[in-house]
């Protein structure tokens, strides 16, 4: 399952395999406890210092990887019965901190590239994208007690 970052969010480090001419960076090897069914796989890009936030899924489990660039993910737990209720936590994925970031439903999250160039995020999700199963807020909405600061 990996190391818990906030209740419902886990990180499992993965080591790239250095080969002649480049590296191999694994993501998923078959279905497991965090991906019990396959819905879709897609790449997103994140611009430097430009947050994509906030989103909360009601059903989708995200399995995120950053094979290129560096991305800061921020999580907020507004689930009243959660042991991490009210907490805001950030976590960075990059080539230097490569691994699988699992975000279970019910957690607010947003992200932004913190590298100088565009970053690439891979999501291997348990369900196909369905707009009605998630809600969004503006990156600067005060409902989430976090200020995006890139100084």
Automatic annotation (TrEMBL):
EC number(s) from the headed UniProt entry: 5.1.3.13
A single GO cellular-component term on record: cytosol
Catalysed transformations (reactions): dTDP-4-dehydro-6-deoxy-alpha-D-glucose = dTDP-4-dehydro-beta-L-rhamnose
InterPro entries reported for this sequence: RmlC-like (IPR000888), RmlC-like_jellyroll (IPR014710), RmlC_Cupin_sf (IPR011051)
Coiled coil: none
Leading EC class: isomerase
GO MF terms, alphabetically ordered: dTDP-4-dehydrorhamnose 3,5-epimerase activity
SUPFAM superfamilies: RmlC-like cupins
Secretion signal, residue range per the UniProt entry: none
TM annotation in the entry: none
Gene Ontology biological process terms, A to Z: polysaccharide biosynthetic process
Pfam family, one: dTDP_sugar_isom
Purpose of the protein: Catalyzes the epimerization of the C3' and C5'positions of dTDP-6-deoxy-D-xylo-4-hexulose, forming dTDP-6-deoxy-L-lyxo-4-hexulose.
Protein name per UniProt: dTDP-4-dehydrorhamnose 3,5-epimerase
